[in-house]
Write a structure and sequence with these properties.
Layout: H1 11-30, H2 35-42, H3 48-54, H4 65-71, H5 76-87, H6 89-96, H7 111-114
Helix pairs in contact: 1-5, 2-3, 4-5, 5-6
């Protein structure tokens, strides 16, 4: 069952955050950016914030989505739609339908992405 997205003690939420972090890391590496370089582009004071996000230990504040989309060279709507899968799967499911498990090749999609209670 889905719980509030900020409860990292929940293993499903933790897994979603880790999956989102892997996606962010792939985008950063695709752009040829270091964590320091990305931090500078998005206005993060410490590059370690990027590491925290990439390992699932944090979230991008929604008021910074546009900076992140620009820095990672992703259209803003596409960026928000993708990050929403990991940060707010219930809202994502309502707006776009649940993503197929095949979008998560490393592991099976967490139940939070397949069940809306």
């Amino acid at each position: 069952m889905y719980t509030h997205a900020r409860h990292l003690a929940d293993p499903e939420i933790r897994e979603l955050r880790c999956m989102g972090g892997r996606w962010l890391k792939e985008l950063r590496e695709k752009r040829g950016l270091s964590q320091r370089g990305l931090a500078a582009l998005v206005g993060a004071e410490y590059y370690t914030f990027i590491s925290q996000l990439e390992t699932g230990r944090g979230r991008i504040p929604p008021d910074h989505y546009l900076e992140w989309a620009a820095a990672l060279d992703v259209p803003p709507a596409e960026f928000v739609r993708e990050i929403m899968k990991y940060y707010d799967p219930v809202t994502y499911g309502i707006l776009f339908g649940n993503p197929p498990a095949s979008q998560y090749p490393a592991r099976e999609a967490p139940a939070a992405l397949t069940t809306i209670d």
